Amino acid sequence: MRMHTARLNSLTLLALVSVLTLGGCGGDEGTDNGNANADTGTVAADTETGEISGGEDATSTDSGADDTGSADTGGAGTGDTATADTGSNDVGQQDAGTACPGADHCECKDNSECNSGICLDTHEGKRCAEKCTETCKKGYACKNIGEGEPLFYCVSAQLTLCSPCQFHSDCQVNGVGSLCLDYGDDGKFCGSPCTADADCPTDYACSDAKDGGGTTVKQCKRKDDGGKPKACECSDWAKAKGLETSCKSTNEFGTCSAKRKCDATGLTKCDAKVPASELCNTIDDDCDGTTDNLPKDFACTQKAFADTGSKSNCTVDTDCGSTGEACDPKDGKCKTLIGACAGKATCDAKGNLVCTGAKSPTVESCNGDDDDCDGKTDEDFTWEDSSKASLAVGAACGVGACAGGKVICADKAKATCDSLSNAKAETCDAVDNDCNGATDDAACDDSDACTDDICDGKAKTCTNKAKVDCDDKDSCTEDACDKKTAQCLNTPYQGSCDDGNACTVGDKCGQNPDSGKHTCLPGTDKPKCDDSNPCTDDICDTQKGCVNKANSGTQPCYTGPKETQGKGECKDGVSFCKDGKLQGTCDKEVKPAAKELCDGKDHTCNGVTDEGCAPKNVAVTFASARVAGKSGKVDVDMLVGQVGPVGSAKGQKMGLEMGFLAWLKALAK
């Protein structure tokens, strides 16, 4: 339900009197909105402590009943927005004590004119404040402006809107969280809390803004007009406060700043000057805080020329078309430009532009300086590495044991690699000791061009293998390789040689009588190929020489006593050849018997027959006989057919005496 505000009870009046008394003893008129205004007697809430101050707040007259609604318990904050009164406020129902002047939202000059006892500044002018608990009409917010005990009133949420400012605190009156918003070169101006465009006046929009802690909040801000926010106007409250802001003028030369404020006529113009290029005039033309600091394009140079070039007439450099030429101002001739060294353009005491600090350019030397002032140092000097690459001064250089070096000036005329001092004679160790880009390339050099010098860097061993074959396949030349040139030398000589025929012995070098060529002449001797082995065939092969080839022949053999060989019944045997050797056996040989067999044969092979055998009578039977006639021809065959005379046998060797002689001998006995 709404509170009746037509009259104040004695306690409330006492409290207001106390407040007004304290306000009358406060600071000067027009001070910070947290102080009481002694001249006007108005009261406003301090944004930091909540104390009642001299800031004035007013509300428009409520047209309904005089009840103000429930109190706002949210307190002050940047998220607060104006709220509309939802209760009826019919002026016709008010009693005579609540009608203007004195009623809520009625115009007032000081607190004494208001039934509520509070006359506040609002965006509608000074108005009698309406007490509240929660809601207020559009454009107002329910805030506690009391000191000590709570005093909730509807205060203007748009009092500072579009007023010039420097800081957020310049915009925050009676606990309303208005922020100081940037309007670009025009300056900074206050916004007011909102949730939607409907919370803002005409020509304003509810836009995002950052509070002092970086949090995004909503604030009413003038809508854009032609790409920039519309200009703000000073309210009566802003004029009374004399609020000001910083403005600026910006272009490609810089930014110049100035102040503008609210005076009796409104918002003053921004009198920031337009930035300009710095000149020698003792004025800070570009507003950078420094006078006569000339820009870079004011640079000056000192040139030097060689006495070469086309030497055609000129007045400016563009008159000289040849590359590397410029116009020498001393004689107006096109010459070869050595260089142009920049100085510093400065202003003298009379405001004249002068050039100082420029050195005279010289032909580039290898010395670490930019002698010709072309922005490059020692650019004309390079060092050639093992791969024939040209490295500029300062580049990394060195390989192998010299790796990690840098190209430096050896003297004014040449460059070198500063790590070359690490180079040593090449050794076979898998390291490029001499820093020539090849590892172990000369480590095993035996100074002989006829050999390949091979290094096993891992094993650290050398091998020098012949790489040139000078053998001309002629046995009557001395073949050699020249160690310096690796050329073959084939020199004729006299002496023994080899004609390639293994079956000639005593070959000698000499002149062939048929061809006249110095060559190897075959010898007349033959090689002795007989190996005295009956089991080999001994021949001479022209390619291989003597060849003793195994045969399958036989050899007579006898293993008995030598004196018995070939006597009596003894006879030789046969030994067979196998794999070029005689076998150990003697087959089919007959050796002496231990004793005679008494058969009329010499079985003991001693030249005696039947020695030791008893004599025997032998009957001889004549089978037939032929008698020769006188003519010498056989003409009578006589068959005897009877046992003839008896003969005698002596010893083992039987002798026979037969026929008539034996018969006579037998009779004689």
Give the secondary structure arrangement, pairings included.
Elements: H1 10-24, E1 44-45, E2 52-53, E3 119-122, E4 125-128, E5 130-131, E6 140-144, E7 152-156, E8 180-182, E9 188-190, E10 204-210, E11 216-222, H2 236-241, E12 244-251, E13 254-263, E14 266-267, E15 300-305, E16 325-328, E17 333-347, E18 353-356, E19 382-384, E20 390-392, E21 396-397, E22 405-411, E23 414-417, E24 451-456, E25 461-466, E26 477-481, E27 488-492, E28 508-511, E29 518-521, E30 536-541, E31 545-550, E32 554-557, E33 573-578, E34 581-582, E35 625-628, E36 634-638, H3 659-668
Antiparallel strand pairs: 1-2, 3-4, 5-7, 6-7, 8-9, 10-11, 12-13, 13-14, 15-17, 16-17, 17-18, 19-20, 21-22, 22-23, 24-25, 26-27, 28-29, 30-31, 32-33, 33-34, 35-36
Could you walk me through the main structural features you see in this protein, from its secondary elements to its overall organization?
This protein is mainly beta and 669 residues long. The strands form 15 sheets. Strands 15, 16, 17 and 18 form a 4-stranded antiparallel sheet that branches. Strands 5-7-6 form a 3-stranded antiparallel sheet, with no helix packed on it. The chain has a 3-stranded antiparallel sheet with strand order 12-13-14. 5% of the residues lie in helices and 26% in strands. Among the domains are: 168-267, no CATH class; 296-356, no CATH class; 527-600, no CATH class; 625-668, no CATH class. The longest helix has 15 residues, at 10-24. The protein contains 3 helices and 36 strands. It is elongated and about 210 Å long.
